[in-house]
Amino acid sequence: MSLPKRIIRETERLTTDPVAGITAVPHSDNLRYFDVVITGPEGSPYENGKFKLELFLPDEYPMVAPKVRFLTKIYHPNIDRLGRICLDVLKNNWSPALQIRTILLSIQALLSSPNPDDPLANEVAEEWKNNHAHAIETARDWTARYAK
């Protein structure tokens, strides 16, 4: 099956001009499926963690957003226990002008600044709002336990 030129270009750019703290490598048997690793941003409770994600480009891409989810367990108000991500650019704010790298940068930014007011994991968001220090501690603990 041949890939659209756009996907080939985006994939090449991810390889030749990688984003700091992010790797995205397509599977050899399915070039629409990527293994992604995002390093937890400095100064966040996820610092130095290596988070594995999967990214899939549906046939309708770029008219529809890529499907992305965390495979590494993470304590975050916008990521549920199945690894699904609550992020506007993956849903209602998706635009064909966005690219794989833009999405991955947005996810990396979400690690730096979680948004407990738009949660996917409600109990984590409650903890984030009501006992911030404990939530940060739990996020650090999970990072050490699951993302090293």
From TrEMBL:
CDD domains: UBCc_UBE2N. Pfam families: UQ_con. Its EC number is 2.3.2.23. Gene3D superfamilies: Ubiquitin Conjugating Enzyme (3.10.110.10). GO terms for molecular function: ATP binding; ubiquitin conjugating enzyme activity. The keyword Nucleotide-binding applies. Belongs to the ubiquitin-conjugating enzyme family. PANTHER family: UBIQUITIN-CONJUGATING ENZYME E2. This is E2 ubiquitin-conjugating enzyme. It comes from Dekkera bruxellensis.
